[in-house]
Design brief:
Blueprint lengths: L1 H12 L1 H7 L2 H33 L3 E8 L5 H9 L7 E4 L6 H4 L5 H4 L7 E6 L8 H4 L5 H20 L2 E9 L2 H13 L9 H6 L3 H15 L6 E5 L3 H15 L19 E3 L9
Parallel strand pairs: 1-3, 1-4, 2-3, 4-5
Antiparallel strand pairs: 5-6
Subunit structure: Homotetramer.
EC number: 2.7.4.-
Function: Uses inorganic polyphosphate (polyP) as a donor to convert GDP to GTP or ADP to ATP.
């Protein structure tokens, strides 16, 4: 092993090795990666402080991650939770409803996963399945869809009125980048599990998803529970800026001592405005 390492170092010292090592593009990429890792770590330190504040003050925090398939929701949640105390947070990623759940009040299966005092819950998709996925693929009736759209603002108002801190993210991606990420999933054996029959149709249903997405924004974006749009075409920026947004919204103890900027970039994270929101 040691000889192999010495051999590799020797190769790097050659003219060819040094030329490749000093390649401007490669060097720039390495520099960006190091900067990203350093920045992420500093933000994760702040997330630990936030979690401690939530726990000690018995606060309840609920963060919803929505977006098209392959938009980077799961990857962002992973970075949010990477160093948090697992006893004080939960990630909620529900399977399709069972036969029993199908006959229940629609929100019932989600309510059992609401945050307890001192806890943060991260929803990898949420009750907003009924706003987009279900009507797009005919998994619900038009009546069920309309009922949901009328009820959801009232439900969220009641949760916030009860003291829950609610943040709703929509991770936005272009059609071209979605296609690239699907191809990566197909060629990377470590990502095969992410593929689903619904994914295969996502590109075909792009415009239909856009229609229901805009309806969802228009009818469920409120002053008390706004939609926060995250440009996730650059995954790393999306992770950093979504974390920064959450940190900026919660008055946790020790925030003023942060060694990193906690103001999110409005070019990456912005509040939804009542206009047609383009995904490029």
């Amino acid at each position: 092993m040691l000889k192999e390492l010495e051999g590799n170092i020797h190769l790097l010292k050659t003219k060819s090795g040094l030329t490749q090592l000093m390649n401007k593009k490669k060097l720039a990429k390495i520099t960006r990666n190091v900067e990203y890792e350093n920045e992420l770590k500093e933000l994760q330190v702040e997330l630990i402080k936030l979690q401690n504040w939530v726990y000690e003050n018995k606060k309840r925090v609920m963060i919803i991650f929505e977006g098209r398939d392959a938009a980077g929701k799961g990857g962002s949640i992973k970075r949010f939770t990477q160093y948090l105390n697992p006893r004080k947070f939960r990630v909620v990623a529900l399977q399709k409803p069972t036969e029993v759940e199908t006959g229940q009040f629609y929100f019932q299966r989600y309510f059992q996963h609401l945050p307890n005092p001192g806890e943060i819950t991260f929803f990898d998709r949420s009750w907003y399945n009924r706003a987009i996925v279900e009507p797009v693929f005919d998994f619900c009736t038009p009546e069920q869809y309309e009922k949901f759209m009328k009820e959801v603002p009232e439900i969220e108002h009641a949760l916030i009125d009860d003291g829950i801190i609610l943040i709703k993210f929509w991770f936005s991606i272009t059609k071209e980048n979605q296609q690239k990420r699907f191809k990566e999933r197909m060629t990377n054996p470590l990502k095969h599990w992410k593929l689903s029959p619904v994914d295969q149709k996502a590109q075909e249903m792009w415009d239909k998803v856009t229609y229901y997405k805009e309806e969802m924004f228009s009818r469920s974006h409120t002053g008390y529970a706004p939609w926060i749009i995250v440009d996730s075409n650059d995954k790393k920026k999306a992770r950093l800026e979504s974390i920064r947004y959450v940190l900026s919204q919660i008055p946790y103890e020790g925030k003023e001592d942060a060694k990193i900027n906690l103001h999110h970039d409005p070019e990456v994270v912005e509040r939804y405005h009542r206009r047609t929101h383009s995904e490029n």
